[in-house]
Design brief:
This protein is mainly β. The chain folds into 2 domains: 94 residues, SH3 type barrels (Roll); 91 residues, Roll (SH3 type barrels), CATH 2.30.30.40. Helix content is 10%, strand content 44%. It has 2 helices and 15 strands. Strands 1, 2, 5, 13, 14 and 15 form a 6-stranded antiparallel beta sheet that branches.
């Protein structure tokens, strides 16, 4: 069965979302696996002064700062979802994920929360949070054929729970331009090096 979404259908979905929206969604925090290039466990290096926050979502004044060239250990990570994405299913899609089969029907709406890796996302669907493999175009690449349209991109921040050699503990916003992970510290020269 072919299903086409009209411009009027998309406008109706957006107007409904706007009419029921009563201000910014509160930030949601999701624990993240710290086992990939995004979050390598081990000793990192601050390449700039980095604010350290006591808890997530980070609000207010930082409790401390990491100094430039200060080493810190990454102990865990979390994604803070600032704005959930909105995806409109355009064609019935059946998906088996983590031992569970789900039918996403044309016209259904998914709220995209956080990226899990390998093309998988947590989404809010029919009142519950489930993990799905993306069947909509994503920034990291696009499937040759997909069965949903992105109405609003998801916005999030990736935070690292750290403890510095100096004893500073808390959460820092991951920023590749302001820190070096354990792999980046050794890849160029074969030995640990400082920030440039």
């Amino acid at each position: 069965m072919s299903y086409r979404i009209s411009a009027a259908g998309i406008i109706t979905v957006l107007m409904t979302a706007c009419a029921t929206h009563r201000g910014p969604d509160p930030a949601q925090v999701f624990p993240a696996l710290c086992q990939s290039e995004v979050c390598l466990p081990g000793w990192w290096l601050a390449c700039d002064s980095l604010p350290v926050h006591p808890a997530l979502p980070a609000r207010g004044t930082p409790v401390s700062r990491l100094r430039r060239n200060e080493e810190f250990e990454v102990q865990a990570a979390s994604t803070v979802v600032l704005v959930p994405g909105i995806v409109l299913v355009t064609r019935d899609t059946r998906q088996r994920h983590a031992g569970r089969e789900t039918l996403f029907s044309a016209g259904d709406t998914l709220h995209v929360l956080d990226y899990l890796g390998e093309g998988d996302f947590n989404v809010r669907y029919r009142g519950e949070i489930i993990a799905v493999e993306a069947f909509w175009p994503i920034r990291q690449g696009s499937l040759p054929e997909y069965s949903a349209d992105v109405l609003r991109e998801q916005q999030s921040e990736f935070w690292l729970r750290i403890e510095a050699r100096s004893g500073v503990r808390g959460w820092v916003l991951q920023d590749r331009g302001k820190m070096l992970d354990p792999l980046a510290r050794t890849i160029a020269t074969g030995a640990a090096y400082a920030c440039t």
